[in-house]
Amino acid sequence: MRSYRVDLRSDTVTRPSDEMRRAMAGAEVGDAWYGDDPSVNRLQDRAAEVVGTEAALYVPTGTMANQIALRLHARGSGHLVACERRAHVASTEVASSAVLSGIAYRRLDGVDRGHLTAESVTEGLEPDTYFDVEVVDLVAIENTAGYAGGTCMRLRELEAIRRVARSRGIPVHLDGARLFNATAATDTDPADYGRQVDTLMFCTSKGLGGPIGSLLCGPVELMPEARRVQILFGGAWRQAGAWRRRDSLPSRTARSASTRTMSGQSDSPQVFPTCSRDRSTRPRSRRTWCSSTSGPRNSTREP
Amino acid sequence: MVFVDVRATKLDTGTVIERLRDAGVGATPTDRGDVRMVTHADVDDDGIDVALEAWREIAPSGSGRSEA
User: Fold this and answer.
1) Pick among A1, A3, A8 to test the B interface (most B CBs inside 10 A)
2) Residues from A in contact with B at Cβ < 8 Å
3) How far apart, in Å, are the Cα atoms of A247 and each of A262, A269, A289?
4) How many CA atoms lie within 13 A of A67 on its CB side?
5) Contact present, A135 and A76 (Cβ < 8 Å)
6) Cα–Cα distance, B7 to B46 (Å, whole number)
7) Best interface-test mutation with A: which of B2, B42, B50 has the largest number of A CBs within 10 A?
8) What is the pLDDT of residues A177-234, one digit of tens each?
9) A23-48 per-position pLDDT tens digit
């Protein structure tokens, strides 16, 4: 193994802290395929709560979370996803999208520091009146924009894009692999983003400093199909709670990870950065697929 | 995240990545030939100083922009 004095290849290279390793050693686990892993179930509940969606599904990678979301939104083979030209889904994941779901892309120029704007999305969603074969099923947003150097999308721009897409009956997916870097940098609440989009993905293995896994977040009714696709794609977990225990996860946040001086450990470790905003306005119904009435199995999550 | 346009060094991107690696700094190339560096929770001030020193070696005349 190559060792570096400072490894800046990616924010995915972080190693679990001693605190995290102790939490892993003591984590309650079960077979997540059966919905029996209490640590995974708590993580999913907590993720949904933080980003303001009804439910969440823990999957192995950010690519898989995006690919499940794209599959959920795509209505036909050869249909298009509109996104910024260099978006992760349309570059790193382009072959995955084609192979797994027959998805192609309508690539739009990122006119605002690598981000789409409502104006560019409006133009990008113009119907294909000439060839009459191009159908856009989804608008995919990336925040922060990785290939643009981690720039943040303005929340009001996301709101405007959402309105444009919704007026055309097109859903919006947010690739928020580094969403918490954006919320820390702009002092915004992750739930403000979750409320604007139909589905949202974020990674625990990037700015949050966790070891493995991403959360696909969205409405309860999508989760049984999301879980089916997770299994279809070969990404079902077993005792995944072994590296996830919500109440003992890193206190290191996107904010501390993005500054030169590390703030160290806090007294009340938590997996997600907190925000000063009042959380009482968030949706009351926050359920994982396995605790929803539409889910096929009973949850064993704790109160 | 920091992206460095290395054209002014007269070195190709791969060579810059190798020199950084020899100095103990992990970095990656982008599809546009830039060098990408990403901070994270395991990077401290000393690590940043190591990276800055490595860049001073690679681009000694400097553009003056490497001072953080």
Assistant:
1) A8
2) 2, 4-15, 91, 144, 146-147, 149-150, 206-207, 209, 250, 252, 256-258, 260-262
3) 21, 7, 20
4) 26
5) yes
6) 27
7) B42
8) 999 999 999 999 999 999 999 999 999 999 988 899 999 999 999 999 999 999 999 9
9) 889 999 999 999 999 999 999 999 99
**pTM of the predicted model, to two decimals?**
0.83
Q: Which amino acid is at A48?
A: A
Residue A297 token pair: 């199995």
- From CA A250, how far away is CA A269, in angstroms rounded? 6
Q: Which residues of B touch A (CB under 8 A)?
A: 1-3, 21, 23-28, 30-31, 37-48, 50-51, 68
Contact status, residue A39 vs residue A210, Cβ threshold 8 Å = no
| Residue ranges in chain A modelled with pLDDT below 50 | 247-303
Q: In degrees rounded to 5, what are phi and psi of residue A80? A: -110, 150
Both tokens of A236, joined, read: 């079902």
**b/e burial code for range A214-237 (CB count within 10 A of at least 16 → b):** bbbbbbbebbbebbbbbeebebbb
Q: Which two tokens stand for residue A53?
A: 């969606």
Cα–Cα distance, B33 to B38 (Å, whole number)? 16
ipTM, two decimals, is: 0.90
SS3 track for chain A: CCCCCEECCCHHHCCCCHHHHHHHHCCCCCCHHHCCCHHHHHHHHHHHHHHCCCEEEEECCHHHHHHHHHHHHCCCCCCEEEEECCCHHHCCCHHHHHHHHCCEEEEECCCECCECCHHHHHHHCCCCCCCCCCCEEEEEEECCEHHHCCECCCHHHHHHHHHHHHHCCCCEEEECCCHHHHHHHHCCCHHHHHCCCCEEEEECCCCCCCCCCEEEEECHHHHHHHHHHHHHCCCCCCCHHHHCCHHHCCCCCHHHHCCCCCCCCCCCCCCCCCCCCCCCCCCCCCCCHHHCCCCCCCCCCCC
- Pairing state between β B35-37 and B28-29: antiparallel
